[in-house]
Known about the structure:
The protein is α/β, with parallel strands linked by helices and about 400 residues long. The chain folds into two domains: about 25-60 and about 95-210, Rossmann fold, CATH 3.40.50.1100; about 65-95 and about 215-400, 3-Layer(aba) Sandwich (Rossmann fold). The protein contains 17 helices and 14 strands. It has helices spanning about 1-10, 30-45, 50-60, 70-80, 95-110, 125-135, 145-150, 150-160, 175-190, 205-215, 215-230, 245-250, 280-285, 320-330, 340-355, 360-365, 390-395; strands at about 15-20, 20, 70, 80-85, 115-120, 140-145, 165-170, 195, 235-240, 260-270, 285-290, 290-295, 330-340, 380-385. A six-stranded mixed sheet has the order 3-4-14-9-10-13, with helices on both faces. A four-stranded parallel sheet has the order 7-6-5-8, with helices on both faces. Helix 12 links the parallel strand 9 and strand 10. Helix 5 packs across helix 10 (about 205-215), helix 6 (about 125-135) packs parallel to helix 8 and helix 15 crosses helix 16. About 55% of the residues are buried. Bound molecules: pyridoxal-5'-phosphate (PLP). Pyridoxal-5'-phosphate binds near residues 94, 199, 360 and 385.
Amino acid sequence: MLATIETSAFTVNEQGYYGNFGGAYIPEMLYPNVEELRDRYLGIINEPDFQREFDHLLRDYVGRPTPLYFAARLSERYKAQIYLKREDLCHTGAHKVNNTIGQILVARRLGKKRIVAETGAGQHGVATATVCALMGMECIVYMGKLDIERQKPNVDRMKMLGAQVVAATCGSQTLKDATNEAMRHWINNPTDTHYIIGSVVGPHPYPDMVARFQSVISAEMKRQLLEKTGSENPDYVIACVGGGSNAAGAFYHYLDEPTVKLVATEAAGQGVQSGHSAATTFLGKPGILHGSRTILMQTDDGQVTEPYSISAGLDYPGIGPLHAHLFDSNRAIFAAITDAEALQAGLELSRTEGIIPALETAHALAYLKYMENTGREVIVINLSGRGDKDLATYSRELAL
Ligand SMILES: *Cc1c(COP(=O)(O)O)cnc(C)c1O
């Protein structure tokens, strides 16, 4: 019986809450869309036919299972048994496609004809445009006008894939304005459009749905660790957190294994106290962001603070409600990693293992230097994405 209670401690309840966090705080105009999704998502993703199609696409299109690679030189340097879960080898170069594949299959079963999404750096926009091309569905991606100028290669990718990229011209012309415009589009087209959210954020059921799609990461890790070490469970799982989808996927099947320590690394930017940071659990307070009650960076009168990180994927003022609960309940260790530490960790992995990680991922790798290991610890780092998109930043900042 106890096991059952423990199993439910980190899963969403019927009202869409993880502990004190989650729920669906949305304008009335969005009720029909969110309600339809909430009523049907579990039924759809539990259908054998859905699971067959999802598994097939993950295998033959995305390239799963991704390898669990024993990093020998890195292990020697940090006196531990370090394994890298290679999400960087997924089609499109990161874990995000696991979620967009799942959501587009849900959208089709809901009878939707068109997909709308928001994107900041363009990574989620590319993963969405990819699956829309694959399914022959219309794709509209809202992106801040400023981000369109800053992230030209990803804008070109989306256009190549047939997506329509629409500039959000209000406010700061970045991610939050793009999110508002995408929501408005969904409100105006409730019957034929599905909104694909890119992380474990947003109103219930999005955080749970996205976590389930990404949970394939830890399901594979368990099988692969058993084969390589004789145990399904490592001592540590380390992942970076922007909204928290790659971490949710890497933690998912370990949430109820108390011997497995979960480490979530956030972006400290130029330093937690520098005024240029995205370290949400260090700087934030409970509040409501993008439809859920979570922890977010805000001013004393509740205005959302503009976040900062050198890595676009971690440049977000909140975290998903599951992570707020993992923080609140001390189930996960939260650490803040600066831009400079991430750049060095990215350089180190490139030169010790021949793998150039995304700058987001480099924040997870940088945690290694804070650990005191004896040589026996088994550590899995979720290598969320590859660093090709960040090469210009690496070369500029490291003066290569
Ligand atoms: C988008 C992104 C992230 C951050 O998003 P999460 O939802 O926190 O996983 C991390 N790594 C890479 C490579 C990304 O593209």
